[in-house]
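Problem: given the chain below (712 residues), write out its structure.
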Amino acid sequence: MPASSLSDEFDVREVLRELSLASRGSLTFHDLADRCAVPARKRPRFRRFLRLLTREGTIRPAKGRGYRLGRRPRPESEWAVEGIVRRHRNGFGFLERAEDEDLFLSVRETEDLLDGDRIRAVPVPGRFGRQAGRVVEVVERGRASVTGVYRKSGIREWVDPDPELAGGPIELVPGAVSPRDGEIVDVEIRDYPAGRRPAVGRIVEILGAPGELGTLVEAVIRRHRLRRRFPPDVLEEAEALPAVPCEEDLRDREDLRDEPTFTIDGEDARDFDDAVSVHPLPGGGMRLRVSIADVSHYVRPRSPLDTEAHERGTSVYLPDRVIPMLPERLSDGIASLRPGEDRLTVTCEMRFDGDGRRTGLRVYESVIRSWGRWTYREVARVLDGEEVAGVTEHREQVILMHSLMGRLRGRREARGSLDFDLPEPQVVLDRSGRPEDVRRAERNDAHRIIEEFMIAANETVADWLVEREGPAVFRVHAPPDPGKLRQYVEFARSYGHFPPFGGLASGRVLASFLESVRGVPAEHALHHLLLRTMMRAEYSDQNTGHFGLASERYVHFTSPIRRYPDLTVHRFVKARLAGEAPSKQGLARLAAHTSERERVAATCERDVVDVMRAYLLADRVGDVFEGIVSGVIEEGFFVELLDLYAEGMVRVEDLTDDYYRFLPEPRVLVGRRLKRRFAIGDPVRVAIQAVHVAVGRVELALVRGGSRVRRR
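Solution.
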């Protein structure tokens, strides 16, 4: 009887995958059954299934009554996995999979691959227990063009592509533009690389000289394929919008124009879509109103504006510019909650008792007139007792906001919400728009006021929609991966800290442990590595809760100007207010698309900050700094410079006093002869050795005895 007769119960691809990943090449019957999650009652039939696979030659017996891959295994195409390629600037990459661990792709495997390609690969054992992939086929190319540096030698012309996008050089065919040697260009790919045959392309645009900061930032934007210009029909629709709401727009809306309502944002904020108001209630309670710009009133489904906003998914905020989701006519005009101007909003009204427990809620369409545009710094100064024009006269409102924030934050922390409070970089620009400093972004109680109010509103709207059995784009966050959490426990123990958890832990337990290590030398490392064990927050049409916030239900409601999921949630809210039952069709695809766009935006924002930071350090090669080891990998260790908000890498090949090997479990480099160790949290003295501005990378050299350690 062929094995296919049991294929409805057991998956041969899963068996082959687990055997291919076995560290010794084989697994016992029970280990294999455990890995394939076969219940006890089905194991006799599973054993029979394995015997049939053995007869076919797909697998074969191994010593100790185990199994290994057969000499005539099934075609790889039957058990290969599919995903998207994400290249690293050092040439290797990862196969990104939606519902499983990413596969490492070596430099050899990525030679013919471009970032964004969809491929199929066979899982194979990798180094240090990680899963690797062997490429079987390219399913779909992910890019039609790449950026790179134009090169010319004699009659030969080629482009060295951005290493995060492609591998080897791109041969050129004649094009309409003629760059100079060394300029950064955009290349349209005509033929993709295959084996020893290089890629062939045509230059379509010259971005500029490689040393110009604007050119480098533009190259990063092109790398992530962000939509920089709005199509004519989108701009035409935006220009047709009114400058102010008309009387008909105000009809059937609750009038809150006489309520003291304020926006609180940063000094350089580019859109104002949320306003807040707090009032005391008898018995020590408070009423919080969070009014959000009613963008959905102006952006109709399937209109050009809506289609473009959906494709972009989110606004992208860079230090020197913003790439908005919606045109300025809307985001800075009719939908911006400017002081003293009537604006259409959707208001989430919440009542809280003296302990910060929500006792009532309402969601309704409204019209507001902001009483003032406050900044975080101004509110913080008033909380410190200073006088600030435009804010001091409303000091009572500021104090009420601060008091409510404390109650909400206390309840959120008590239920196990996690707050890593890791430093975020902020690029300071001069008057000409060029970077002059990178510092830690300020975070004070004024920031926390808005943070807590927005979390409360998002949770309340999620509850409101679920109670009405309406669909929603939920913001979900899964618990940490048990395997990674167990590795974290081992890491913490190596530093003398003993977390009271193993592979499973509640948010309350994790939060308690983070609080217990506050102020210790390894605090930053312990926070950072615990954050890396966390799953990525994303959007979903199914509510599975938000682990990081310890929320049973959560949506994004408060930023419809800059996030498409928020705009979608507004539409669902307004449909329910109108007594309609919105359709859930296509919601899963929308959630997946906006999650992907969010990841692209975050990566682009990080890469631009790295480039600007490297640009500032380019003339400081040779300078010596005190630092702390912030990460350790096989190739070396990363160092956070204390005097600068910057990070660089010391490569293991530059450590000439010994031969160092990487120990993955404690994540340390150890010298074979002198036993010197480099571990996360260790203080070191380093010098800037080289700066690669185009890719935002800083190379460091270890300094000992007042002099730099020389390269071999």
